[in-house]
Design goal:
By secondary structure, the protein is an alpha/beta fold. Helix content is 49%, strand content 11%. It is globular.
């Protein structure tokens, strides 16, 4: 059996970062969580609760929070749980911390595609913190259930098999099971596109179009994901696994999903600005929709569901027009 990494430095104290901190603590690891928000740091250290993102859940007192990157510099593993659109800036700031060892591996738990570049999180990390051993953690996982210790299985994607085994051993608990793959691209693609599809499914629910429509949307959305994945060299088994189909099923089937709930509110007639203004959490599908649309356009991949969501979010097409356009597309064979 491999010797597990002991000290994890988690960058990001939102719901997901906090849930992973709770999981790692159950696994017997030492955990330091970095947050840009002083109130978060104070709540975690003092009340042992993330009152902003996971209110009511009492955290292990061994979890330490900080607002200083120097406090996570000695960690054995760095884990990014920041919003996807902020990962580049935070990685750049972290890279400037002098005493972070070059051999420390990084796990990316952020799900999304960068808006202005259409790049995946691993590409951004390579640009800002080059030559780091990088893993992707993705899959069907509501933060509150993970934090509470409920059974969860995810994909852990890493090129180096020995590193993957050591990271999996470090993360695993009886209720938290990582499955290994070497498909870095596939694991990230599924985690990003499912958020866009969840917004679409929420719109269908908010418009009361029925379960048949939602099932069709999930299936055709998955076909779009497969087409884009094939062009990027992702493995079909990854996209049909936990980080692809598994995450799609979870996120597109429950209003507990930030992205699906946003779609429901849009479908009910609320404006995007009004929805975002009253939220404290990030719906990654909003910026990822346009990033994915742009990426598909560059690679000449047909992704009508993703393109429709991007257009609705941008305000260039109404929801009713987008639905009508999708339903009026030419009939064809069912192939992804």
């Amino acid at each position: 059996m491999t010797v597990a990494y002991q000290h994890f430095g988690i960058i990001g104290a939102g719901a997901w970062g906090t849930a992973l901190a709770a999981t790692l603590c159950r696994a017997g690891r030492d955990v330091t969580v970095w947050s840009h928000n002083p109130a978060n740091v104070s709540d975690i250290n003092g009340a042992h609760e993330n009152k902003r993102h996971l209110p009511g859940l009492i955290l292990n007192q061994k979890i330490k929070a900080t607002g200083d990157f120097a406090d996570i510099a000695k960690a054995d593993v760095l884990l990014f749980a920041t919003p996807a659109q902020h990962l580049r800036r935070i990685a750049r700031e972290l890279a400037a911390v002098k005493n972070i060892r070059a051999d420390v591996p990084v796990i990316i738990a952020a799900k999304g595609i960068e808006l202005h570049s259409s790049k995946f999180m691993s590409e951004i990390l390579e640009e800002e913190m080059p030559k780091r051993a990088t893993a992707i953690l993705s899959g069907p996982s509501f933060a509150i259930e993970v934090a509470a210790g409920m059974p969860t299985a995810l994909t852990l994607a890493v090129k180096d098999k020995m590193l993957g085994e050591k990271l999996a051993e470090s993360l695993a608990t009886p209720s938290f099971r990582p499955y290994l793959t070497d498909d870095i691209v596939g694991a990230q693609l599924g985690g990003a596109i499912k958020n866009v599809l969840a917004i679409a499914c929420g719109i269908v629910t908010g418009r009361e179009l029925g379960e048949n429509a939602r099932a069709a949307l999930i299936t055709r959305g998955l076909a779009e994901m497969m087409r884009l994945g094939q062009s990027l060299g992702a493995k079909s088994e990854t996209l049909m696994g936990l980080s692809g189909l598994g995450d799609v099923l979870l996120t597109c089937s429950s209003a507990q999903s930030r992205n699906m709930s946003l779609g429901i509110e849009l479908g009910e007639g609320q404006t995007l600005d009004a929805i975002l203004q009253r939220r404290t959490s990030v719906a990654e599908g909003v910026p990822t929709a346009e990033a994915a649309r742009s990426l598909a356009e560059k690679r000449k991949i047909d992704m009508p569901v993703v393109a429709s969501v991007a257009a609705v979010l941008a305000g260039t097409v109404s929801i009713d027009r987008a639905i009508a356009d999708l339903l009026s597309r030419p009939l064809k064979t069912e192939m992804y």
